[in-house]
Amino acid sequence: MAKLDPAQFVRDVRTEVAKVTWPSRKETLITTGLVLAMSALAAVFFLVVDQVVAFAMRGVFGLG
Questions:
Q1: What is the pLDDT of residues 5-57, one digit of tens each?
Q2: Contact 58, 64 (CB under 8 A)
Q3: Where are the domains of the chain?
Q4: How far apart are CA 50 and CA 44, in angstroms?
């Protein structure tokens, strides 16, 4: 079994973090905006689909 060495772990983590390509502020803002817009679009889509299905169920079963 491997021996646990916290200092080596920290060195390994720092080495790996140095390899990461971090996005710029502009890229982060654009991506965040796109995620929010797509979430809003999905919410509106599912609202419309839900209303259509509810309308159809009311028509078929005569409830509500």
A1: 899 999 999 999 999 999 999 999 999 999 999 999 999 999 999 999 999 99
A2: yes
A3: 25-64
A4: 10
